[in-house]
Amino acid sequence: MTQSSQPAQRRRFIQSAAAATAGVGAMAVPMVSKAQTTAFRFQSTWPAKDIFHEYANDFAKKVNDMAGGRLKIEVLPSGSVVPAFQLLDAVNKGTLDGGHGVVAYHYGKSNALALWGSGPAYGMDPNMVLAWHYYGGGKAILDEIYKTLNIDVVSFLYGPMPTQPLGWFKKPVSKVDDMKGLKFRTVGLAVDVFKELGTAVNPLPGGEIVPALDRGLIDAAEFNNATSDRILGFPDVVKNCMLQSFHQSGEQFEILFNKGKYDALPAELKAIIDYSVQAASADMSWKAIQRNSQDYIELKTKDKVNFYKTPDPILRAQLAAWDKVTSAKSAESPIFKKVMDSQKDFAKRAGQWQNDYMVDFKMAWNHYFRAPAKKA
What we know:
about 50% helix, globular, 6-stranded mixed β-sheet, single chain, D-Maltodextrin-Binding Protein, domain 2, about 375 residues, alpha/beta, 5-stranded mixed β-sheet
């Protein structure tokens, strides 16, 4: 072999080895990928057009992107497989691999479940309720409740919702007596609270509220936020919205997995789900501020909606009604009392810290944007 032929021979050897390696890789990678790919079918409890369904898809996209094809979550809108209020059963039985909703929708199985969303939560805002859930003992109690109900699911709470309005009314309310006799839509323990205020409650799922208002089947209703309410068509049938309420001032979303399907996943995919929940929680809260504030302006300017602050006497009446309802249910149910006691212990400490430390941001906003009152 001549010296000049050696480089050429080495080049041919390297090229042949590279081609062989590429061939092995081309055959092996799809086989490994196919063996490890898992598809999960989810359903949300929200209509396809609602921003809440968008939040469900946002979570799924984070999982899908980070999983690199090894796990793919497809999210269907409410009613695609089961009605909204049947989501928990469908995930438990494996009819669905998972879902996106709120814990209060499971109120019919255990009224203690509605405490993750309904009511004033001892003055905690929605992010503080999530803090209680993950660091104050709430998650362990929720798991306990599901176990006693023979519900075999893995639950992740996330996404602190802004305080929800009192609702949409054909006529604005100015005093507690105005609530009496109204046919009103709400869900969870808010049902009991509004009954205490004298309303006739109908716990309709989100997609059925506006048609019921339009047909006169109900006189008033609450759902959630400026964006959802606008998308669902509330301003098309009612022009009065009462802002601020304690009936659902600390709610959050729930992401469910069938436990058998979840447990079968490798550890790294479970970690991706866990961190996707945390990322989606932050992303959802940021998006809510952007979209809700935009739609609030649109509701006032384009849809000509009249907004009113809920009078303080109605807010105080809600608190009194909440105390009466929860006292009775705590006496009937040890698990209900256990949730209430756990929330109270956490809220007393965390609430004092937040109230003492946080500045009044409204003061600063008024300083820059609120026009001074004209002198008489």
